[in-house]
Design a protein that fits this description.
Shape: globular
CATH class: Mainly Alpha
Order of helices and strands: HHHHH
Radius of gyration: 14 Å
CATH topology: Globin-like
Number of strands: 0
Amino acid sequence: MVKYNTITKENINEMVLKFYSRILAEDTDVSKVFKARLGEDLTSPVWKKHTDLLTNFWSMIALQDPAYQGNPMMAHFDMGLTKEMFPIWIKLFFETIDSVYEEDQGIIFKSRAENIATNFMRNLGL
């Protein structure tokens, strides 16, 4: 697969779908949380709503796209997340980023993801 050397909303959506496909394929506590909340069918309406939301979120981060409306922290308070889940999430996310983007573009997502994980763990008391 050719890696992207520019970031667009379309390839962000591709990255988001690829990431959650990987999450669903894994047998981890992270995948169990998502399967319990959203099901196992990435093409379902509930998953479509989630992947659209995350596409908008990462587009806000990478492209300053104003389409994202939400509070990512509040959405995670009642998910039963543990400290052990965050390294799994980061590993799968970074591997996905590395498979989709050239290094210069990927670093934008990786640095922000590390900050998000740190903030989530602190704010969730993990």
